[in-house]
């Protein structure tokens, strides 16, 4: 782990406990009680899935790297811990977060191209008539984040650890996609990147990417969690040795095992919630407050 | 309502502008005093908008974003401290701690009226502090990329601070090609040979070459490799900096494949042989040692072991800094372990310790005192096309 994470603004200012996060969110909801009552929103993870899909739609034609998408997702999550979502136009916040993230991740996109993709994504949205909207929202985003824009992602920890655990190609791919998925949860603002990377590796090793490709299911993960917490009863004999090795390594290292277990549980419940995801419902509920309040003007 | 950006802090409510310090490609720097309970002196950097007279938000330049993010993230006694960043109605201000001097101004002071060498202990302390700041940056995966005397600040109590992170970049990101985007980096006189030869995989070693050049300049009071910059041609191709490379070779001699195995892999390597043609000095270079001895003699540093001369240890360190092969060049960490810094005891934390020289204070002009409205001529940092996206514009742009 690079020394820099421990002194980072990410650790010092943007890592919360679950309780702190709940409290912060309650505070901003309380300050906008009427709005919150008037415009109910789907599960936060459903919103995150929706946001991710919109970001991906914008990013694909521009060939934007995954890491910039991840950064944009964290920016959006940080922003909404400080600003009530119903006071914003999420489409504008997403496009701006992506524009800013691309600059920070050294793959800059011209503001006009981001604008064009955003218009394409939200065809009916009239707020995207000129670049100054994104430019102004950029000021708001940076200001709310106190210019603390440098992020430490688990991808680098994964790259460092993959040789240590001799991950196969498939396992590495699976771990990578678990990291991609964790941005749909609060985990990136609760746990340090290496804990997330170890979570992803553990799951990848225990689940073993099978015939179906790196597809994850809550049920499979639950079995995986049981395997990890009680490796000597592991059903599959073939994987037992590697799992044991991993568990031994975890026990000897200074990694917070409780945190890893918590992350695994969080991922399991993400995949459970995902099954009831309804894109149209998300879109409609967002559109309701945006239109009614004229936030797209 | 989410109707737009609401300024939370105002620069004029928090600071009183004392005067204007300097302007550069990035914008303007002002000297300021704290207001409303804030005490002390500050330097406030105001970024210029991309286009002159920009009246609307058009997106912040990538170099400004980098600098803001790095300034917020970094904290070290030998790196200029960032007090706060203010975003106010289309303008960006970075508020720094104030430093009365910088190395350029100190070198300048010793050049006139009569040439007088910088005391050897002062140079040693400056270098020691500079390297500590650099170790910190490199440990945090930050390359400065624009180290030069004007960017090294010195406070009245003799603390050395690395400034201007406008070109600094994080170098851990394995996926990106550092060459891509900004092709020209580091003021030419301090530019490392691998950059001059078109290297695409440059490393923190470029900062150490610059430290070597600064060390040499502190000793001799003149830039050691004072080349003339070849400008970008009309096709925006980055030219080979022939004259700069010449200046280096005239002292250091031709780089060789034996000492620098990857030399022949450098994109501009074929240009090297043409440099030598018809130039007799290439075959009889002055040699760094010769340059060093002449410099000590000219500036009347005493003979024999004494803290008043940089001595043979100084030469040894200089040689390790001005090493052609970036892989062999000394790292900031190792440079700090060099005997130069221990032979006469650890250098002082105050580079002016025991020095009787009084340096003039920073010049502050009264011409432009209005930080909010002053006009901002010129364009953004030239030669750095890092914000302009080359590539083809997306087709969909037209439909919109």
UniProtKB/TrEMBL annotation, chain A:
GO terms for molecular function: cyclin-dependent protein serine/threonine kinase regulator activity. Pfam families: Cyclin_N (PF00134). InterPro entries: Cyclin-like_dom, Cyclin-like_sf, Cyclin/Ssn8, Cyclin_N. The keyword Ribonucleoprotein does not apply. Residues 53-143 form the Cyclin-like domain. Keywords: Cyclin. Transmembrane segments: none annotated. GO terms for biological process: regulation of transcription by RNA polymerase II. Belongs to the cyclin family. Cyclin C subfamily. This is RNA polymerase II holoenzyme cyclin-like subunit. It comes from Massariosphaeria phaeospora.
UniProtKB/TrEMBL annotation, chain B:
SMART domains: S_TKc. Residues 15-341 form the Protein kinase domain. Its main location: nucleus. The keyword Nuclease does not apply. Coiled coil: none annotated. Keywords: Activator, ATP-binding, Kinase, Magnesium, Metal-binding, Nucleotide-binding, Nucleus, Repressor, Serine/threonine-protein kinase, Transcription, Transcription regulation, Transferase. It catalyses: L-threonyl-[protein] + ATP = O-phospho-L-threonyl-[protein] + ADP + H(+); L-seryl-[protein] + ATP = O-phospho-L-seryl-[protein] + ADP + H(+); [DNA-directed RNA polymerase] + ATP = phospho-[DNA-directed RNA polymerase] + ADP + H(+). It is found in: Nucleus. Residues 363-400 are annotated as: Disordered. It comes from the Eukaryota. Its cofactor is Mg(2+). It is an enzyme of class 2 (transferase). Its EC number is 2.7.11.22, 2.7.11.23. The keyword Disulfide bond does not apply. Pfam families: Pkinase. GO terms for cellular component: mediator complex. One of its GO terms (molecular function) is cyclin-dependent protein serine/threonine kinase activity. Component of the SRB8-11 complex, a regulatory module of the Mediator complex. PANTHER family: CELL DIVISION PROTEIN KINASE, CYCLIN-DEPENDENT KINASE 8-RELATED. Belongs to the protein kinase superfamily. CMGC Ser/Thr protein kinase family. CDC2/CDKX subfamily. This is Serine/threonine-protein kinase SSN3.
